[in-house]
Amino acid sequence: MGIASILADGLGLMIGSLIAAALMTLAAWWLADRAHRPWLAPVMLAAVVAGVLISPLEASLFVRMVSVFGLVGAGLLWFVGHGTGNAPVEHEAAGSFLQAER
Predict the structure, then answer these.
(1) What are the backbone dihedrals phi and psi of residue 78, each rounded to the nearest 5 degrees, phi first?
(2) How much is the average pLDDT of 32-51?
(3) Cα 95 to chain center, whole Å?
(4) Closest among 81, 74, 69, 68 to 32, alpha carbons compared
(5) Which residue has the higher pLDDT, 93 or 41?
């Protein structure tokens, strides 16, 4: 019974920390999207993780796992937010379509 309890605790810790980090990542993305600054999402997430890691809460294994998964989420948000809003808008296709109708 001891091994099953250890596996259940580990699985619960893993799934719970993944869910908490995913919710934290989604909240950061939503706030950055509302502010129209997609590059701000990974910065907010990294700031929250850094703040938690220097607090007394860092002693908890759950908080450390959420922090690690949150940093992975910040990296993913950096890739997603870095590519948005930087590409020039092409209006040539719309212009050529309007010229073809005339």
Answers:
(1) -65, -45
(2) 87
(3) 37
(4) 81
(5) 41
